[in-house]
Amino acid sequence: MRLRHIEVFHAIMQVGTISGAAQVLHISQPAVTKVLQHAELQLGMPLFERVRGKLYPKPEAHRLFAETEKLNRDLQGIRRLAASLKGRAVETVRLVSTPTLAISVLPQAMTAWRRDFAQTRCELATYHTSEIVNALRLGEADLALSLQDPRHPGIVAEPIASGNLTVMAPAGTWSEAECAQPIGAADLSGELIGLADSDPLGEIVVAACEAQGVQPVFRTVVQTYQIARSLVEAGAGTAVVDPFTAASAASGKVQRRQWAPAIPVQLYLLTANHAPLSHGARELANCIGATARACLDKGCA
Q1: N or C: which end of the chain has fewer CB within 10 A?
Q2: Quick one: which H or E segment has residue 131?
Q3: Where does the chain cross the membrane (predicted)?
Q4: Rounded CA gap, 158 and 138, in Å?
Q5: CB–CB of 164/296 below 8 Å?
Q6: pTM across the whole model
Q7: Which are the contacts of 36, defined by CB distance < 8 A and separation ≥ 6?
Q8: What are the CA-CA distances from residue 178 to residues 165, 187, 256, 258 (Å)?
């Protein structure tokens, strides 16, 4: 089967009629009929039973559908990539980030970058790391930010800033002398706010506690680092988070201490290995890295 045959075949399988497939594909009904007939002629067998204008797939069609489904998805991805490339006549930088970095690091970095790139269009979106990988591979984003190295053969992960795992507690929890010292699992007290079991940072926190012989009890578990930060700011408990989330917390509402023993947390710039960055995109990455490092160097996390 040719690629056009597969596209028409899948459309008919999904909607069940020639007219419906024509609407989905934005082509005429005679064109759909002609392509289907040609596909069946090449295969040497009918794929559908025609009953009162509706097409009912034969067993062979179901088998074929299962085998060609991945190829059809790849075709759709290629079309999205082509449309994305076509729409870049005006210089555009497309940045995706995990939500916590979009809030904690990006605002100041974008402000600095805009001073030199006032006319460049920038599109910002927030995804989880698995979604970021797909966006980069399909050419739907130019660069991305994550606290995880996805270790994907098609993705380049470049560390641009590094801090340490940080404990945040409501203001007044620790003395000034205690704040100057790192804190281990045994010294955690009060209500603990945990991260979701599936979260990589949450797994690191639990493993770090268990390594010190402590089994943490989280009565409040959150999906995002920003929620954990907001709860600490409101006095709801203590949370162990990345240094960038800790840096974005209101200084008058929280206290921060580094985790002991120190556990590094990297900020990664992610790019597709087949797509070099434009000058504007590279300068934006430089601004993000500089902003993140300056924040950590000042001791705000």
Answers
A1: N
A2: helix 129-137
A3: none
A4: 19
A5: no
A6: 0.68
A7: 5, 8, 9, 12, 18, 47, 48
A8: 17, 11, 10, 11
> Which pairing describes strands 143-146 and 264-272: parallel, antiparallel, or unpaired?
antiparallel
Measured over the CA atoms of residue 197, residue 199, residue 205 and residue 210, the dihedral's sign is positive
What's the length of the chain? 301
Cα dihedral sign, 260-205-163-247: negative
Tokens matching residue 274: 């087949």
Would you give the DSSP letter of residue 180? Answer: T
What does the pLDDT read at residue 85? 59
Contact at 8 Å (CB) between 190 and 169?
yes
3-state secondary structure of 253: coil
Q: What angle do CA 156, 162, 167 make, to 5 degrees?
A: 130
Q: Which of 74, 207, 78, 199 is closest to 128 using CA atoms? A: 199
pLDDT in tens, 68-83: 887 777 777 777 767 6
Between CA 227 and CA 146 the distance in angstroms is 18
Contact 274, 191 (CB under 8 A): no
CA 140 vs CA 128, 152, 201, 278, 287: distances in Å: 15, 17, 27, 15, 22
DSSP line for 263-284: -EEEEEEEEETT-PPPHHHHHH
pLDDT tens column, 194-247: 998 889 999 999 999 999 999 999 999 998 899 999 999 999 999 999 999 998
Q: Which two tokens stand for residue 193?
A: 């706010």
DSSP, collapsed to helix, strand or coil, labels residue 40 as helix
Handedness of CA 192, 195, 197, 200 (dihedral sign): negative
